[in-house]
């Protein structure tokens, strides 16, 4: 379990005052430590669908959004708990949000490790909140508590976190993205390699695909760049609220009919697809997790139609051929550039 959440659990397990929890991807295992039942004083907002689902299952009043929903503007609390995020604009955005949500005299409980910049964030937050930060070490984690005063200092620079902005083009159409999406301000080099090799990949298919799934779609690049595929139905799914917001906007802007689904690796999808495209994540919060690749491979195998195939691109250090061999009868490496490898997978076992 994340050591920061081990330190924060006393604030989350049985709060006796209205408590708000900003739960991002780092909270993926913390909810398991909460008992199932009523948590009358605890409300959680999460930008990760799996975290949101897990907290709902534990009986926590939870909301899934990109920390920008109108409901958040109406929430007031006495305590706000936040384990700092990996991305600076998001962390700044949520510290600013914390000031708005807390009652005067309320307490921000901020936690992180020294290498993650917790001391710097505590200093910035103390200026905004108009009071000194109390810092306490708990193993690798540092917990800081800061009291809100009416004398607000300057807001932290969140790079206009909530706003979509153009970052590239596909076929002359702008692609929009925002902070909060992994690799938000560029076209991912692995995804670009997959698209560069789309023609040889498509040549391996037994028939043109009628249905297409973009599994872990991000802001939608693979779907936007593969419109040459004449699929009758397109579905894009992601676990990240910021990615879904950008993808929906991009598909609408490109006048492309795509069903966008909030889901954890397509867990709730029941249909089968003739083609799945995927650039699976291998980071969760501050950590690197190779088992995320396993999760995406397993789900792709389950979601493929009988004659379906999957196009995967992964970092070259991930042993995808070995991982995929137990799930697919056909595992072909189609391209590689020293940094990423592109694979054709077919024949779910």
TrEMBL record:
Presence of the UniProt keyword Iron-sulfur in the record: no
All residue ranges annotated as the Methyltransferase small domain in the record: 175-343
Domain of life: Bacteria
InterPro entries documented for this protein: DNA_methylase_N6_adenine_CS, Mtase_sm_N, RsmC/RlmG, SAM-dependent_MTases_sf, Small_mtfrase_dom
Keywords recorded for this protein, A-Z: Cytoplasm, Methyltransferase, rRNA processing, S-adenosyl-L-methionine, Transferase
GO MF entry, a single one: nucleic acid binding
Residue stretches making up the Methyltransferase small N-terminal domain: 27-129
A Pfam family reported for this protein in Swiss-Prot or TrEMBL: MTS_N
Protein name: Class I SAM-dependent methyltransferase
The organism of origin for this protein: Exilibacterium tricleocarpae
């Amino acid at each position: 379990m994340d050591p920061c959440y081990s330190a924060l659990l006393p604030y989350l397990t049985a709060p006796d005052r209205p408590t708000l929890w900003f739960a991002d991807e780092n909270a993926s295992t913390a909810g398991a430590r909460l008992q199932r039942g009523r948590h009358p004083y605890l409300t959680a907002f999460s930008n990760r669908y799996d975290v949101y689902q897990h907290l709902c299952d534990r009986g926590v009043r939870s909301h899934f959004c990109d920390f920008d929903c109108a409901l958040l503007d109406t929430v007031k609390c006495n305590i706000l708990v936040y384990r700092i995020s990996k991305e600076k604009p998001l962390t700044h955005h949520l510290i600013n949000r914390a000031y708005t949500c807390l009652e005067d005299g309320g307490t921000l409980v901020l936690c992180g490790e020294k290498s993650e910049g917790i001391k710097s964030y505590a200093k910035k937050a103390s200026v905004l909140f108009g009071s000194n930060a109390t810092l306490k070490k708990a193993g690798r984690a540092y917990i800081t508590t800061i009291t809100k005063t009416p004398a607000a200092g300057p807001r932290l620079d969140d790079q206009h976190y909530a706003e979509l902005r153009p970052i590239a083009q596909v076929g002359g159409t702008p692609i929009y993205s925002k902070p909060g999406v992994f690799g938000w301000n560029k076209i991912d080099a692995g995804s670009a390699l997959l698209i560069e090799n789309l023609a040889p990949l498509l040549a391996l298919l037994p028939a043109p695909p009628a249905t297409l799934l973009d599994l872990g779609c991000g802001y939608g690049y693979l779907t936007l760049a593969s419109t040459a595929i004449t699929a009758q139905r397109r579905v894009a799914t992601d676990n990240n609220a910021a990615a879904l917001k950008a993808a929906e906007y991009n598909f609408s802007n490109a006048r492309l009919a795509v069903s966008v689904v909030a889901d954890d690796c397509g867990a709730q999808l029941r249909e089968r697809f003739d083609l799945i495209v995927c650039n699976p994540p291998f980071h969760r919060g501050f950590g690197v997790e190779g088992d995320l690749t396993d999760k995406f491979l397993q789900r792709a195998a389950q979601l493929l139609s009988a004659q379906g195939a999957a196009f995967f691109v992964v970092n070259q250090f991930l042993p995808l051929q070995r991982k995929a061999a137990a799930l697919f009868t056909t595992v072909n490496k189609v391209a590689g550039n020293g940094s990423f490898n592109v694979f054709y997978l077919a024949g779910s076992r």
